Amino acid sequence: MTQIPLVQISHLEKTFTKDKGIFSPFRFNKGKFQRQQESVYALNGVNLTILKGETLCVVGETGCGKSTLARTLMGLTPPTSGEIHYLNDRIDHLDDNQRLLYRRRMQMVFQNPYASLNPRMTVYQTLREAISFHNPQMKRRNIDEKIEGLLNSVGLYADAMDRYPHEFSGGQRQRISLARALSVEPEFIVADEPLAALDVSVQAQVLNLMMDKQEEQDLTYLFITHDLAVVEHFATRVAVMYLGKVCELASRETLFSAPKHPYTKALLSAIPRLDTNAPELIRLSGEVPTPMEKPIGCVFQARCPDATPRCFSEPPIMKKQKDGSSIACHVHEEDQTS
Amino acid sequence: MIGHKHTDFTHPSHSSRLHHIWTGVIGDKLAIMVCAAFIFYCVVGMLAPLIAPYDVNSPDFVDLLNAEIAPYWISADERFLLGTDSQGRDLLSIILYGTRLSLTIGILAVAIQALIGICLGLISGYVGGRLDNFLMRFADVQLSFSTIMTAIVFLALFQTAFGINVYEDLAMFMLILVIGLAEWPLFARTVRASVLAEKQKEYVDAARIMGISKTRIMFRHILPNTLTPVLVIFTIQIANAIIAEAALSFLGLGMPSTDPSLGALISSGFRYLFSGAWWICVIPSVALIGLILVMNLLGDWLRDYLNPRTYKH
User: Fold this and answer.
1) CB atoms within 10 A of CB B13
2) Per CATH, the architecture of A1-12+42-235 is what?
3) Cα separations (Å) of A48 from A5, A52, A157, A231?
4) What angle is formed at CA B50 by the lines to CA B47 and CA B54, rounded to 5 degrees?
5) Which of A222, A233, B46, B274 has the fewest CB atoms within 10 Å of its CB?
């Protein structure tokens, strides 16, 4: 199977500047006015390639830049630097009109099903807006048929059309969100923690629905989550993020059987298991540092159990391993060479 | 396993939802009363030329011989149900016309406020940045002048510049314009605050990802979600506009005494209050207070009525 890279993200950086006032950057300090701006470094050079037809899961703690990655990818926030390529076209610098071509090829499913549907629009209106916007010549009757088909395909009856979102449960709303994303027949769907707000039993339904759709329509997913059980069930490849950087990228099997980055090891050891041969729990000390200062060296230095002086001075880069995964870690690299 | 189709219960169809709202209205006694009173005021205002016992435009309408006749239940004069004013005009007829004028001025002035306020508030909240700063500071400056003060200065200048005759012809338009332009910041601020909250929500992002234009997102997606507070303000502002008009008329800067609104009537009756002819002042006041109370109650009730969550099962 030849693998075509669908989306390529290279050196993507996103910095949020804290103060936007005219005077606030100037601080009075020791008799001098100084200009200073506080920034949050949400993404610090992310490199990722998403292959056609795969499910790339992005995992990481809250605040590590997962959602920022999704929003930047979809063009909701402009990146500070770096490039995003869709097939062969660069898309990160496009304005709204130029981006329109890619809108129907890339869609997104959001985290909160209670906020991602307009409460004042019926399901029919929501879906019709999307369909008729991208197919202006489509006849009313065809649109109606298409909406009915879409709702059936996500497991809802057609009489759901004339209802408002508040009349549905969380799982049903997430299906409607998925139906909206599918309504323009995309090939790539970014799902930003679509299961986080749902019950476990409903999570499974929505997840299975997403897998069925992937098989039917040859979709590619970028699936953001912090639930490793979902990753184990669903992913083709997994990217582990920490503080705005990808620290390990591996296929699902490799990641779960042989995690290499100390952070990944800690994450995996934190999954509650019923079987007895669980690896020893690795306890990380300290909190996730706030990404207010660009760290020198490795982003994980402060909490890493194996950190060496090199980790504090030099940022590790992603290196391909023998088993196909790639990680960014000095310690692991040194272990291999020695 | 995905077929999570529910057959065990049925949701209400569109028509049964309307029925549900209707039964909700019927069930709420206050709602019926307020609606009835509002419709009554509107009908009375619209049909004033038909139901008024006298034609206010005919030259016979003013007859000083009939001046200050007490209401029917005191004077037993069958010609004038609510008595007459100091110029011998039938009080019932001029109150009907006055109500019509007050309501028209109130509604049109608030329509201007709402139009300007909603548009500027939406743009300010959605676009943000410098434009937002500029518009909101401008609104702050305008709010720091009281409406009545601005109106007094403006109307007084207009009166002296163009003369009293021109003013009396244009009084109604001037009042609508002045009250309308003076209070738009109230709408703009409310809408902006709601827009700031709404534009964070994911459905706006979803619409942006669909590629839907900014204008359409603002007016089709965000605006309907900000209308609940706007409608409440709308009705309460009508009450305020009527009060402002009455106050200006009372001060002699509103409607002329030949074409009086309720405020102008109260003003002219006020001078006779202590000479025994209390009805010239009190009856229009009751009409005005009733109108304002109805508008305020209507605002409260609309807030509940227009919320889609209230007809949840």
Assistant:
1) 12
2) 3-Layer(aba) Sandwich (3.40)
3) 10, 13, 39, 17
4) 125
5) B274
Shortest alpha-carbon distance between residue B311 and chain A (Å):
10
Domains by residue range for chain B, with CATH = 25-56+90-311 (1.10.3720.10)
What is the reported pLDDT for A278?
57
Full-model pTM: 0.79
**CB-based contact B4 A205, cutoff 8 Å:** yes
Exposed, middle or buried, A275 (CB in 10 Å: 0-12/13-18/19+)? exposed
Separation between Cα atoms, residue A178 and residue A32, nearest integer Å: 55
Rg (alpha carbons) of chain B, rounded to whole number:
24
**What are the tens digits of pLDDT across the range A128-175?**
999 988 888 888 899 989 999 989 888 888 788 888 888 898 889 999
Q: Looking at chain B, which residue has its C-alpha nearest residue A119?
A: B225
A114: chain B residues, CB-CB within 8 Å:
none
Average pLDDT over chain B, rounded to an integer = 81
Nearest-CA neighbor of A42 among A19, A69, A77, A71?
Answer: A69
Task: Closest CB to B11: pick one of A103, A106, A163.
Answer: A163
Q: Say whether pLDDT at A219 is over 50.
A: yes
Residue of B nearest to A207 (CA): B2
- Positions of CATH 3.40.50.300 in chain A: 1-12+42-235
